[in-house]
Amino acid sequence: MSLRPATYGLMGEFRTTAEAAAVARELRAAGFTRWDVYGPAPLEEIEHATPTRRGILITAIMFAAAIVGACWGYFLQYWDAVIDFPINVGGRPLDGWPGFVPSAWEICALFTVYGGFLAFLITCRLPRLHHPLFAAPHFERATQDRFFVCVEAADAQYEAARVGEIFTRHGVIETSEVPA
Amino acid sequence: MPERAAELGYEGPVIGPEQDFSSVSTTLSDLVLERPTPRWWYIGAAISAAGFLLFVIACLWTFVGGVGVWGVNIPVAWGFALANYVWWIGIASGGTFISSLFYLVGSDWRNGVNRTAETMTLLAAAAAGMMPILHLGRQGLFYWLFPYSTVMGIWPQFLSPLLWDFFALLCYVLTSIVFWYIGLVPDCATLRDRATKRWQQIFYGILALGWRGSARDWHSYKSAYLIMAGIMAPMVVSVHSIVGLDFAAGLIAGWHSTQWPPYFFIGALYSGWAVVLALMIPLRWFYSLERIITERHLDVIAKLMLATGLMLAYCYLLEAMEPFYTGDATKATEYLASAFGHYGATFWARNTLNIFVPQLLWLPVIRRNKLALELISIGIVAGMWIERYNFVVSALAQDYVPSKWGWFGGTFWDWSILIGSAGMVMFGFFAFIRLLPVVSMFEIREIIHKRRGRGATGGARQ
After folding, report:
1. Under 8 Å CB-to-CB from B67, ≥6 apart: which residues?
2. What digits encode the pLDDT tens for the residues A83-94?
3. A145 contacts in B (CB within 8 Å)?
């Protein structure tokens, strides 16, 4: 296998979630690493068959964003009231923390949601308007009513005949080679 | 399909049993991509555009003439703009709450209405955001609220609820945009893939960001969305509670009470459900979506309205009790004046529209009658505005000292801003239903998959 394969991978089209999930389980058991299932909705069956650690990564990014947001939101107010422009009003404490909490919380929420959106984009490697997969036949139905499994040619175990055989065993409708 | 209407009755499933992945994708995207613009759309959009134009003119006139063109003066220095603000932000809150809280608790009916609810949220929050800016008097200086002291040499007062409000609204609008958009990405990919016209392919292609629907990408999506929903639900509570605190921190007799945060929040949810229902009923009828937005959806929201209305009734009773329980003569005078004085009509209008009439929702026959539901919902939306108006104005009009009492009435420009802002929101809604799928397609597919059992889903179309 050359370093830059002329094909992106081998794609199989399936009619049901069960078929796609069965292919995913078999690919995983056979030790393939660079493959994915494409479908029109987040469905548990397929999700369970597809290994990923992205959930932990996204949670970590959002948690970090929440901490940064809360700290920044609080510090912004603390800096003003205590360091930059302290005003003594009847001897009340300068660091009136209960009054700083609401704004700090709103900023924390803002950071968390935007952190989540960025984490989503980064882990999915979006935006990427063009992708070799879009050239595959019928792939437009991956966002409507069909399921597709693609094994990338970059996978160390990739062998078109073997992958094709797995696809066939699970009732593939059509197998096609996706050009890079 | 009248012969099958019974199974989608108010105890039926949330989706027509014959619906599958293909039919959902086709029905919902063809409304946007294929179907010629219906005549009712032109009529509705034209009326709302006229309202929007009125809003623009009223805003420009306010910029030129100052807030003096409104009816506000001393003692009633806050009038329509504040009532409008509280009302719009409340409507927005209801939409986010449907979308986030009912996602967290896993209610399947939520998937049929969340797109409409979130869009309404976004538009209502934008309308709400205009009101404080208009009311500033010197609108050009609104950026003074931003805390960048090194340039300005002046800091905002962080301990004031009015500034919390600024942070709350700003953060709420910004997060709502992302929460709405991330849910649109997979649906825009469906539209991109079904589009036949070049401009549609480019437009939805850009909005879809190159979404391919890989299982790992779906996992990213769900992880991020779950936490976002978990943040949005408490955020909405905090945003509207802060609006309540704006009043609680004021020294006006009718405002100075700690009961407002829940009082305002419950009212907010109430108006939010009512707007969602008032929009869904015509939408499903005009677009023939009875198999996707079923009677079950309407029934659930009607019951939610009833429950929330009872909570609001409790709040109204508490509001009536407090002045007499505390024995504060000023508060009692103010309360009695709000109920029987110059603004008494609005007090009873609010009770009628928000509490008495919605009791009809106890009856299943009313909950199944679309026209009755629509009218009750519109009544609640109006009633909530009247409640905010009564709350803001009557408290200011009759304060501690009788020599300081004075009445307020809205001018042409006050009414223009209220009606115009509704025109702006409706115009945005008409644009939305023409350009984007009105129901979240992939979330409906999830429901179909759950109902059909594992492994059984996929396209029937070859």
Report:
1. B81, B134, B135, B137
2. 888 888 888 899
3. 20-22, 25, 458-461
